[in-house]
Design a protein that fits this description.
This protein is an alpha+beta fold and 304 residues long. Helices cover 19% and strands 31% of the residues.
Length: 304
């Protein structure tokens, strides 16, 4: 894979500083220094100490990636968006995002590798940018190569990805709009998280969409990205997600946490444009919304 950068910044100085100005990560710069990524200046081999002038052309030439330990799986995936750099998938509930001790061969990442092989891609290591819990459905964004991963890292680290979720909680929320600002801490040796002042800063903004006798439909936006964040926050307030057995949700209407990553908006550093991806509601959530709230236009129940 090659990536072309034109010095349209009227920049004078070392290539290294130019690359940083173009949002190339320190990790990629380290790979150039080690010779793992080839650097060309105006089609000639160069290094990071060379000087660059306006309108000069820089090419980064990356080696194809593969991880033989990651087995491909050829089960189908539902693609919501795809271009040369990104792949957005509508992950079904019950499918793990990445391989782990209990499943190393059938996860979303395994399926994406199988998809890339079928497309005769040269880079066969999918990089997960937004990971979802196993029983949460919706948008998962993956980078097709490590340059894309490195260039979106600043947005991830600064919590600039616009991630909105649809959730159904037990009980009637009294406040139509709120910000839950409670630190989350992992419980050693357990999957469960708790609210603890020694935990990581965690913020969830929410808007009530509709209220029923025993449930509330909310739109939730992650301002930080902690594991189980929405589940922990609402459970701590006394409104656990419907179906969320780990955090005390009722089990009558649905057998998994009623949480769906409905919409993702991110800035594409390659095109300079914002990309919006929306995931349709799965059947089990459609049935839940119809039963609990009487929605008949289910796909538009949550507009993001």
């Amino acid at each position: 894979m090659e990536y072309l950068l034109v010095n349209d910044l009227n920049f004078h100085g070392l290539i290294k500083k130019f690359l940083l100005a173009k949002k190339i990560s320190q990790r990629t710069i380290s790979q150039i220094r080690r010779g793992e990524t080839i650097l060309l200046l105006n089609d000639r081999a160069s290094d990071l100490k060379q000087s660059i002038k306006p309108n000069d052309k820089v090419i980064l030439r990356f080696q194809p990636e593969n991880n033989p330990q990651l087995e491909p799986n050829y089960q189908p995936i539902e693609i919501l968006y795809e271009d040369a750099n990104w792949l957005a998938i509508n992950k079904p509930a019950g499918l793990s995002s990445v391989p782990g001790p209990s499943d190393r061969t059938t996860t979303l990442v395994n399926r994406v590798k199988g998809y890339l092989i079928n497309r005769q891609a040269t880079d066969l290591v999918p990089h997960v940018i937004t990971r979802l819990d196993r029983f949460t459905s919706g948008v998962v964004l993956l980078a097709k190569h490590h340059l894309a991963q490195s260039m979106i890292e600043p947005q991830v680290e600064s919590h600039l990805l616009d991630k909105c979720y649809l959730a159904v909680v037990d009980g009637q929320l009294k406040t139509q709009h709120g910000l839950i600002d409670l630190p989350i801490k992992r419980v050693p040796g357990q999957a469960k998280r708790i609210i603890d002042q020694q935990g990581q800063i965690s913020q969830t903004e929410y808007w009530v969409q509709k209220t029923a006798a025993d449930q509330t439909l909310v739109k939730a936006k992650l301002l930080t990205g902690r594991n189980h964040q929405i589940r922990v926050h609402f459970s701590h307030l006394g409104y656990p997600l419907v179906g969320d057995q780990l955090y005390g949700g009722s089990q009558k209407l649905i057998q998994r946490q009623a949480l769906h990553a409905r919409q993702l908006i991110f800035f594409d550093p390659f095109s300079g444009k914002k990309i919006k991806v929306v995931a349709p509601l799965p059947l089990d959530l459609q049935q839940l919304l119809g039963q609990a709230f009487g929605y008949d236009d289910l796909q538009n129940a949550f507009s993001g």
